[in-house]
Amino acid sequence: MTRKNITIKRVDASELRPKKLKPFSVKKFIEAATSLEEAIRKEQKIYGATSRIFA
Amino acid sequence: MEQLPEYLHNSTVLLDTNFFLHAYANKEVYANFIKQLKNRGIALVSPNLVKYEFVRSKTIDVVRQKESYFHQIIDSILPYDLSIDELIIPTIEEYKQKMEGLPLTDLIIATYLKKYRGLYLLTNDHSDFPTSVFDRKYIFNLEEFGDKIYGLYIYKPKTKVFDEQISVYDDIPS
Fold first, then answer.
1. Is residue B12, in this structure, part of any structural domain at all?
2. Is residue B54, in this structure, part of any structural domain at all?
3. B164 and A7: CB-CB below 8 Å?
4. Which of A49, A54, B48, B101 has the fewest other C-beta atoms within 10 Å?
5. Do the domain assignments include residue B174?
6. How many Cβ contacts (< 8 angstroms) between chains A and B?
7. Does the distance separating the beta carbons of B173 and A36 come in below 8 Å?
8. CB neighbour list of residue B93: distance below 8 Å, 6 or more residues apart
């Protein structure tokens, strides 16, 4: 088994950008985060551990 | 938060798992912060690996809500392709002794930063992205969390040329 030299082309990060950024609503974000917090609290009641331990 | 430097406007920023974990627990602060980033034309991106690390939970309800919440923040998912795969071993080699204890997700994030020119990482994990490999371009804290210091990191190429010469195995052992 041998090693060979290859050239990895570094790509400009602008290529990762979507043409239009997703609209961001503070209200919707807070609603989603609140609902997630509640779901996590329920999960903790059932299983007695935090979801945070997974990450 | 202070004004972000001009060069970050319209840039592309990768978010790590910690960001998502902190954000739902401190939603008002992070909502305003994310809004500020978006108002400056900053695209927020992340790989699926971060999503999986973030969403894994014990109940389907939490998994689904986390997934939906993740997609509210992110503008696009970073593609995992062969070129990323080929850069993982060279990234490990570049970390050298700093590799010890590096989580797999952070290794993959580091590889994305190596692959994409001008891709910034926003993180408060300052130990896994050493300044021998990355430039810490900017640090700041969110006013309400003085103890949580975020840094914006970018890959520091070894040479001025944009393309990187690396060596890889040309056949895979059977």
1. yes
2. yes
3. yes
4. B101
5. no
6. 154
7. no
8. none
Containing structural domain, residue B111: 6-169
Residue of B nearest to A43 (CA): B59
**What angle do helix axes A26-47 and B17-25 make, rounded to 10 degrees?**
90
Residue B115 domain flag: yes
pTM more than 0.95: no
pLDDT of chain B, 174 residues: tens digit per residue: 557 889 899 999 999 999 999 898 888 999 999 999 999 999 999 999 999 999 999 999 999 999 999 999 999 999 999 889 989 999 999 999 889 889 999 999 999 999 999 999 999 999 999 999 999 999 998 876 667 889 999 999 876 555 666 666 666 554
CA gap A8, A17 in Å, rounded: 21
Other Cβ atoms less than 10 A from the Cβ of B115: the count is 22
SS3 A32: helix
CATH code of the domain covering residue B122: 3.40.50.1010
- What tokens does B25 get? 């627990």
